[in-house]
Every structure is written in structure tokens, then in C-alpha cells.
Design brief:
By secondary structure, the protein is mainly alpha-helical. The protein has one domain (2-364). The chain is 70% helix and 0% strand. It has 23 helices and no strands. The chain has helices at 2-7, 9-12, 15-22, 26-45, 59-66, 73-95, 98-105, 108-127, 132-135, 137-152, 154-162, 164-171, 175-188, 205-208, 213-216, 221-253, 265-282, 294-304, 314-328, 332-338, 342-363, 368-384, 386-401. Helix 8 crosses helix 16 (221-253). The longest helix is centred in the middle third of the chain and has 33 residues, at 221-253. 47% of the residues are buried. It is a multi-pass membrane protein.
């Protein structure tokens, strides 16, 4: 719960994007965030073990799409078209059960390439010239290093095994790093000291209707057609997130005998479809509705390993997190305190997402042939987009991994590689 009371600030980080790209006032943007919070609570209630989030590495692609439209009714219509298409993709693949088949059909090298590409894209958006890391380097570097040390350091895991204090710190995941980054940001002047206000927040639900497609109008066919490539890219990235989530759950499921984690890929697709459909009509969202918040899911999975005393159930972990985060949206002292440091939450999430995607993506690969294909595909995906990345991965897979059209063989000298008959 303590982690959620701080990490909910990431959901508020969407407000500046809503103001800039959709042209909505702050209070209306806050109403959008509240609707998003309702969607965040759904997966745990519907049997999905992943902590939901946005399609985070896809945000730069979505913003590029929105930049072609004037903020206001035009941009709202365009974002509705995009998010409605994402809803249809998830719905069709969930209902037909093709979503779970994709996990089986796509070769390891291409799965790894998708995840690696998403990780590179997330990191590039932060470290490029003019990015948030360049503008506020001290707070983000210090906070990021603290997060990485506490969550992934081998030496700190040794402390966790020996010290109850270290174990309690580890249970808070990103929170210590976030707190350190915020304090450093205030101390160095990279972020303004907040003007804390008291009371309850007042999202402008009375004005919300004026910024929805029911009022501004629905897009024409041309906008839908123009949104198709971005929607496909968003799904490809989300599919990579689903694979990451499946890997994170598989890594901890066998460690506890008191619960079997039912991580149905089809259920993830259907619940994500419901969330995107709700957003499209009632709060078009630049972050879209993604299947997993990778950094928090990884934190939750780490805590889950320590048994029922640490976390009763994988579902209660994700459910408690977002129910607490939803309540925090109405606590004005919290919202006003974190308002100046919204970029810190978004940046640390993207940086950790990139690190985790690279870690999990490389873990998928079993030999040098797969690593070469996945690495090349990942770089192309991050630099030129998901369409070119997928095409590169498919071409390299057929040219290098397959000996002929109908039979598959990996590097014959690699450990565990299949031999052609």
C-alpha cells in the first residue's frame, strides 16, 4: 500500500501529455486519469495476475501520430480512432484465442527481438538529446541507480537473505529510488518545491463530456486508415509486454506450492480489450491501456517469492496496489505534493522498463543464432518502428534459422538446438 501511495504519481504523469496533445484543461485531464484508475483495478478482479499499466514504450509512437493533428477535437477524434483499433485487435485475438497461439507460433528469436526492441525504445526516449535525463540528470541518475541496486543487485540480494531491514526495503520496490530522486530533485533545484494543498481533488467530470467523441464527433474513415499502422505497432509492443509478463510469472510460479498462477494469454487480451474500449469512448488516452506495468509487476513478483506472509496471493498484490492508487487520486495533499515531480515517476518507469525488457528478452534466447537475429531485430524496431522490426526479424529468421521452408532448425552446434531430419 505504501508503494502505491507513491507510485500512483506515475498515472498523474499522463496529465501533461493530455494537456499538450489533446488540449484538455488540468481538471478534465484529472478526470481522464480517474477513469484510467478504474481500468487499472479491473485485471486483478477479472483474474489477471499482471499489474496493468500503459503500453509505455509505445507512447513516443502515439505522440508522433497525434502531432499530425491540432490539439482539441481533431486530436481527440484521432486518438479515439487509434484506441478503438487497439481495442478491436485485442478483442479479436482474445475471442478467437489467436493471442495465446501467437506466443507458441512466434520463434524465440523474434519474441526476444520484440522485447529487446521495446526495451531499447524505452531507454532511447529517456537518454536521447533533449530527453528528461539530459534536462534533469542528477535526480534521475541517482534515483535510477538506487532502483536498480535495490531491485536487481546480486550483492543486495545477499543482504536481503540475511537482514530483515533489507528485506523490508526490497519489498517497496521502486519506492526508495523514487523518494531519493524526488529529494535530490528538490535539493538540486531540478524540480520546484511543491505547494501542498489540503482537501479532496475535484476532477471536472461535469466538463468531461465536452472532450469526448460523443460531443466533438467521431472520426471519418481516413483517420481510421491512417491510425492502422500505429495501432499495429502498439499491439506488437504490447505483445512483447505480455511475453515479458508471462516470463515474470513463470519465474516465480514454481516457487510457491500454495497457489497456481493462471496467466491465461487469452484472458489478458480480453481484459486489455475491455480497458481500451472504455478508454476510447470515455477517456482517449495517449498511453493506451497496456497489459502490464513491467517495473511494478517485477517488484510484485520478487515479493511474492517470499511466501504468503509477504503477499497472500499474486492477485491480491496487484489488486491492492491499484485500489490504493485509485483512492490516492482523490487525496489533494498527495496530488499537489507530487505535481512538480511528475516527470520523475514517468522517467524512472521507462528506464526500469527498458532494463527489465533487455534482461528478459536476452533470457529468452538459447544460442548465438537467436541472439544475433533478436539483437538486430530489436535495434531496427527501436529505430525504425515495429513494422520494419518485424519484417527484419521474419526475413532473418527464414534466412538463418530455417534450413528450408517447412522444417525448423536452430544453430546445429548450439546447446539444446534441434537437429534437422
Amino acid at each position: 500500500m505504501v508503494q502505491a501511495l507513491i507510485m500512483f504519481v506515475v498515472s498523474l504523469a499522463m496529465i501533461p501529455l493530455l494537456e499538450t496533445y489533446l488540449g484538455v484543461p488540468y481538471e478534465v485531464a484529472l478526470a481522464y486519469v480517474v477513469i484510467c484508475g478504474i481500468g487499472f483495478m479491473l485485471p486483478a478482479l477479472l483474474g489477471v495476475p499482471l499489474v496493468p499499466g500503459w503500453i509505455t514504450p509505445g507512447i513516443p509512437v502515439v505522440l508522433l501520430f497525434l502531432s499530425d493533428y491540432e490539439p482539441g477535437p481533431e486530436a481527440i477524434q484521432a486518438l479515439f480512432a487509434l484506441q478503438f483499433l487497439v481495442f478491436l485487435i485485442f478483442l479479436i485475438l482474445g475471442v478467437t484465442r489467436l493471442g495465446s497461439k501467437l506466443v507458441e507460433w512466434i520463434p524465440r528469436s523474434m519474441k526476444g527481438g520484440i522485447i529487446i526492441g521495446a526495451g531499447i525504445a524505452a531507454l532511447m526516449g529517456e537518454i536521447e538529446a533533449g530527453g528528461r535525463l539530459a534536462n534533469t540528470p542528477i535526480s534521475l541518475i541517482v534515483g535510477g541507480l538506487v532502483c536498480l541496486y535495490l531491485m536487481f543487485s546480486v550483492s543486495f540480494k545477499g543482504f536481503v537473505d540475511k537482514s530483515n531491514i533489507a528485506r523490508k526495503i526490497a519489498n517497496y520496490g521502486m519506492v526508495p529510488g523514487m523518494v531519493v530522486a524526488i529529494l535530490v530533485g528538490f535539493a538540486t533545484g531540478e524540480y520546484a518545491v511543491p505547494d501542498v494543498q489540503w482537501g479532496i481533488t475535484k476532477p471536472a467530470f461535469d466538463q468531461l463530456w465536452n472532450y469526448l467523441p460523443f460531443t466533438v464527433g467521431f472520426p471519418d474513415l481516413n483517420i481510421f486508415l491512417y491510425a492502422i499502422p500505429t495501432a499495429v505497432i502498439a499491439y506488437v509492443i504490447a505483445f512483447g509486454d505480455i511475453v515479458v509478463g508471462q516470463s515474470l510469472m513463470n519465474r516465480v510460479d514454481h516457487l510457491r506450492k500454495d497457489e497456481d498462477i493462471d496467466n491465461s494469454i487469452d484472458r489478458v487480451h480480453l481484459v486489455t480489450a475491455i480497458r481500451n474500449g472504455g478508454h476510447a469512448f470515455f477517456a482517449p488516452y495517449p498511453g493506451l491501456a497496456g497489459p502490464i506495468w513491467t517495473a511494478v509487476t517485477a517488484t510484485m513478483a520478487e515479493r511474492y517469492k517470499y511466501g504468503r506472509n509477504a503477499m497472500d496471493s499474486i492477485y491480491s498484490g496487484g489488486g491492492t496496489f491499484w485500489i490504493t492508487g485509485f483512492i490516492a487520486l482523490f487525496v489533494l495533499p498527495l496530488v499537489s505534493f507530487f505535481q512538480p515531480v511528475l516527470p520523475i515517476a514517468l522517467s524512472l518507469t521507462l528506464l526500469l522498463t527498458g532494463y527489465i525488457c533487455l534482461m528478459v528478452g536476452l533470457e529468452q534466447l538459447e544460442n548465438n543464432t537467436e541472439r544475433g537475429i533478436a539483437g538486430t531485430m530489436g535495434v531496427v524496431l527501436a529505430v525504425y518502428g515495429a513494422g520494419w522490426g518485424l519484417a527484419t526479424g521474419a526475413v532473418l529468421y527464414y534466412l538463418i534459422e530455417r534450413t528450408h521452408l517447412l522444417k525448423f532448425t536452430s544453430d546445429p552446434e548450439a546447446p539444446g538446438a534441434e537437429k534437422s531430419e
